[in-house]
Design goal:
single chain, alpha+beta, Phosphorylase Kinase, domain 1, Aminoglycoside 3'-phosphotransferase, Chain: A, domain 2, 2 domains, two-stranded antiparallel sheet, 11 helices
Length: 330
């Protein structure tokens, strides 16, 4: 996690209450807890010292965030040898957790064309453990209804709300056929534990047992390719198609060598379409519905991923014809 910059924060009653909680457990609790970069949720994170060690304090107001899944998934990952942060203390009723500090070295800041292969090698190894070993029982199912709903965020919030565009009858029909095909591709894949946000801002280079893995509380039981495409179609770095296909082949050899490459490539491409369509819609929701500015500025990268892949699949030509246009007409 990376420390934010800026002036000292204003009075913070929840942080004050968290420090009182820690002082009831430990002898020496620092009063200097600095914010660290968070995510799109209502959770906040602070770095500070307790009895001479440095830790991360998670503030997750219980009326806004249920932290029980975080504890439960953390245990699943750690029991399989993955480097999720150790949970040192927790008070779920109050919404506070004291966590191992995994450091500052986000993959996001380390990955470039020279370092990417070494970093992805260890990330793929962790993905293999997620797929083969981590228990997916009793996790929410990433099924057809959710897959479809997420893709319609693109229509309802990106096209309608963000761009002021309404699809015509023929365009909606083409969109529905494409979504049905993408959902069917996802559902025919092996079902595994899915982190749901396995990308460079949630992976950390750690001194031992790298990568450190964070932001896993929304895990589901879902398609084998989902976490892989989350990593390689990243919001921060765009890779040439040749590298993407090389990584597809590398990971296929690790987790499903019995699946031929053409089938695996199609699974990855269509899963990537679903995820990137969803992200464009989700960012429009964050910007226009939840009032979190800045997300619309990240839309173009993911929109480009969509328009990169669509032309590879002639069955989606009716969507390819209009999706990149400035207006969609009846």
């Amino acid at each position: 996690m990376v420390e934010s910059t800026g002036t000292s924060p204003p009075p913070d009653p929840r942080l004050d209450t968290a420090l009182i909680w820690l002082e009831g457990i430990y002898e020496n609790v620092s009063l200097d807890w600095r914010p660290v970069a968070g995510d799109a949720s209502n959770r906040r994170y602070f770095r500070g010292q307790v009895d001479g060690g440095t830790y991360i304090l998670m503030d997750a107001p219980p009326e806004l965030e249920d932290s029980a899944p975080f504890l439960e998934i953390d245990e699943r990952l750690r029991s399989c040898g993955l480097h999720a942060p150790e949970i040192i203390q927790h008070d779920l009723d109050a919404g506070y957790l004291l966590l191992e500090d995994l450091g500052d070295d986000l993959y996001r800041d380390l990955v470039d064309s020279d370092s990417v292969q070494d970093l992805f090698d260890e990330a793929f190894a962790a993905l293999g453990v997620l797929a083969r070993d981590v228990d997916r029982s009793k996790l929410p199912e990433y099924g057809e209804d959710l897959l479809q709903d997420e893709m319609y965020w693109f229509v309802d919030f990106y096209l309608n709300r963000h761009r002021g565009v309404t699809l015509g009858h023929a365009q909606r029909g083409a969109w529905a056929r494409m979504c049905d095909t993408i959902a069917a591709s996802a559902l025919e894949q092996p079902r595994v534990f899915v982190h749901k946000d396995f990308h460079s801002a949630n992976l950390m280079k750690t001194q031992s047992n790298s990568p450190g893995i964070i932001d896993f509380q929304d895990a589901v039981a879902g398609p084998l390719s989902y976490d892989f495409v989350s990593l390689v179609w990243d919001r921060y770095l765009r890779w040439p198609r040749e590298r993407l296909e090389g990584w597809m082949e590398q990971f296929r050899g690790q987790v499903c060598p019995e699946v031929d490459f053409a089938q695996w490539q199609r699974w990855c491409d269509l899963m990537g379409l679903q995820r990137n369509i969803k992200i464009v819609g989700r960012f429009a929701i964050l910007e226009h519905v939840e009032g979190k500015p800045g997300y619309a500025g990240m839309i173009p990268r993911f929109f480009q991923y969509i328009t990169d892949v669509l032309p590879r699949y002639p069955e989606f030509s009716d969507v390819t014809e209009w999706i990149g246009s400035t207006e969609c007409t009846p």
